[in-house]
């Protein structure tokens, strides 16, 4: 699997995991868990973008 595809897959996984943590934090009224989820979701989006850039550049 190409590096760009790995980044996209990992990014999608982290984005989904972050969304779950964020929702769990909202449901349990746990602001720390909610914040961790938001951060992980943003990191996942960034990793997906890195994968897209790598694909364009051919890396």
UniProtKB/TrEMBL annotation:
SUPFAM superfamilies named in the record: Hypothetical protein YjbJ
Q: Where is the CsbD-like domain?
A: 7-55
Coiled coil (UniProt feature): none
Q: Which InterPro entries match?
A: CsbD (IPR008462), YjbJ_sf (IPR036629)
**Pfam families membership:** CsbD
Family that this chain belongs to: Belongs to the UPF0337 (CsbD) family.
Q: What is this protein called?
A: CsbD-like domain-containing protein
Give the lineage. Bacteria, Pseudomonadati, Nitrospirota, Nitrospiria, Nitrospirales
